[in-house]
Amino acid sequence: MIIELTSNLGTFKTLKFKSGLNILVAERHETSGAKETRNGTGKTSFVELVHYLLSDKRNADDDFHKPEIIGSDFCGKFSDNGSHFLVCKKSSANTDVLKKDGKEITPKNLRKELGLRWFDLSDEDSAPTYGPKFGALIAYFVRKERNGGFASPIMNSTSQQGWDSQVSLSYLLGFDWRLPQKLQVKKDEKKDADTLAKMIRSGYLTDGALDVNKMQSRLDLLDTEVDAKRKEVTSTSVLDGYRRHEVIANDLTGRIRDLNEANLEDLDLVESIDLALREVEDASVADLKSMYEQVGIFFSDQVKKRFEQVETFHKQVARNREAHLKRERKNAAERLASRKKEINELQIGLSDKLALLRSGMAIERLTFLQSDLNRLEAEQTDLRQQLPRFRNVEEDRKRLGREINDLVDLIGQDVLEREGPRKAAVQIFAETSQFLYDEPGQLIVGKSSGVAGLSIETDIVGKKSGGKNHMQVFCFDWLLVEAAIKNDRFPGFLIHDSHIFDGVDGRQIGLALSLAKAKCEKLGIQYVVAMNSDDLQKIKSEEEVSGEAIFDPTDFIMETRLSDEPNGGLFGIKF
User: Which of 170, 157, 167, 169 is nearest to 130 (CA)?
Assistant: First the structure.
């Protein structure tokens, strides 16, 4: 139970609590405008203060580290089984100082001590990965609106992980929390196996499954490729001016090609000249005489007398043509001989250049070879390291999948077998919600349809709204209180800030307070709720309309009241 919250900050408003129902009211000042709200009055800061005292993390941006407040001591006096203890924390610009009963203590040790005292949480229980933790458990009994604590009954904040909710609620409700804890461990192992599988290139998959034989085959091939490439790189030297030598060799090759093409043309010319010379030799005077005699049939003797003149002319023409052809042939032969000599000289130079180029390579080429070798070596190393892990990854994934399904089944079986906690939870939620809405709400506990694990669903009558959601949180929290008390895992107090009644009708607010009062008396616990005065007015208005008494909060309103006046908030300071 919380006895009081104090501070040496002069403007701080001490809060004194009693057993049972405590209503911390924030009132609107008469001069406040219609648009002004009670934000900043300190209702939420009161919840934040409880967390601040018990937290193991320092938030430099929270209210306790603002310039107006930093350096102040904040204390919470608690009572547990008749013994009192005082927890104080001094905010600091660097490290806050935490004390219990005047002695400095680390947040870790304080939470360890309170975990055992309030939640029967031993080191053995909290030690395992994904085991129940003090921070998660206390957050169900002191929900923070800033963290989304009223968004869902089963989540103490919007950032809470599913496994954390399952483990914490199993612990508080009396189910086997080790099953969801083991389930999360297996999910992590499965996630690692899935990640390994995703790292495998598609070339190593057959029908979507890992084919380690392909990986081994690729590794065998890589061994050979790497050796060959490594020898090539180590046996190769860089030739200075490689590119210049390469250009010269290309020029020599081009010149030889041009000369050969020119030779082909001259060889064709020589062949044509030889043919023409043979035609000149074959052109005889007899043929000319025969033709001349045939012409005489038609011409006079005067014409025939001139044959000797024609014969002389014909022989002169033949001799001239033969001389011309022979000169042309000689010129062609001389050009062929000249080119052959030049080609021989060029080929000697080309052979020298090619031999020089074969003796080394350009730096760019060597760089490319080295880069290619590095790539192959990296792939070889990667495969060599991962192959042993991949070899059984498919089997591991299948095995883990089966184990996860088995654990989900065990969670469902555990809920069925623990009939007492299950029936009690369903009954308490139904009774609590029925008190508010005349009809029992539903709490459904069992295994999830998938592999999530423990499934807890709640529903109460009424339209879907923020108010309905908040009342589901209200009903669920009271279920947690009763279950935790039965399992000796309750800190002795439940705290709600005013957001629990956001969007809730006056009748349900009054009934909720009436229910809380009755449960506090029945269970001997403390319930602290911060409220806006408007919400209390809603109850009165509902009573006036219905003519039915719902709840009179007067005797439960705390002596300290907050307001929206400049110094009316919890800290007495406007930030």
Answer: 167
Q: Both tokens of residue 162?
A: 């599913």
Q: What are the strands of the beta sheet with 83-90, ordered from one edge?
A: 15-16, 2-7, 73-80, 83-90, 97-100, 103-104
Torsion on CA atoms 283, 289, 293, 296, rounded to nearest 10: 100
Give the DSSP H or E segment for 20: strand 20-27
Q: For residue 204, give the 3-state DSSP assignment.
A: helix
Q: Where are the alpha helices (DSSP H) in 359-448?
A: 363-391, 393-417, 419-437
Cβ atoms within 10 Å, residue 387: 15
Residue with tokens 């002695």: 103
Q: Which residues pair with 99 in a beta bridge?
A: 88, 104
The pLDDT tens digits for 418-473 are: 999 999 999 999 999 999 998 999 999 999 989 999 999 998 886 566 688 899 99
Which is nearest to 535 in space by CA: 566, 557, 559, 567? Answer: 557
Rounded CA gap, 82 and 350, in Å?
107
| Upper half-sphere CA count for residue 141 (Cβ side, 13 Å) | 28
Relative to beta strand 73-80, strand 2-7 is: antiparallel
Q: What is the signed CA dihedral for 515, 516, 522, 528, rounded to 10 degrees?
A: -170
- Between 369 and 478, residue with greater pLDDT: 478
Strand, helix or coil at 443? Answer: strand
3 state DSSP class of 205: strand
Contacts of 472 (CB under 8 A, 6+ apart): 153, 433, 441, 458, 459, 460
Nearest CA-CA partner of 44 in 137, 139, 144: 144
The pLDDT tens digits of the residues spanning 188-216 come to 999 988 887 776 655 565 556 667 787 88
**Cα 144 from Cα 442, distance rounded (Å):** 25
3-state SS class at 411:
helix
Spatial contact of 43 and 529, defined as CB atoms under 8 Å apart: no
Number of alpha carbons in the 13 Å side-chain half-sphere of residue 98:
16
CA 157 – CA 135 distance, rounded (Å): 12
Tokens of 461: 């009558």
Contact between residue 28 and residue 534 where contact means Cβ atoms under 8 Å apart: yes
Place of tokens 């139970």: 1
Three-state secondary structure of 75-125: EEEEEECCEEEEEEEECCCCCCEEEECCEECCHHHHHHHHHHHHHCCCHHH
C-alpha–C-alpha distance, residues 571 and 559, integer Å: 16
CA distance between the termini of the chain:
30
> How far is the C-alpha of 367 from the C-alpha of 393, rounded, in Å?
38
Strands 209-210 and 205-206: antiparallel
- The rounded distance, in Å, linking the Cα atoms of 502 and 469 is 10
| Region class of 241: left (phi > 0), else alpha (psi between -120 and 50), else beta | left
User: Which H or E element spans position 206?
Assistant: strand 205-206
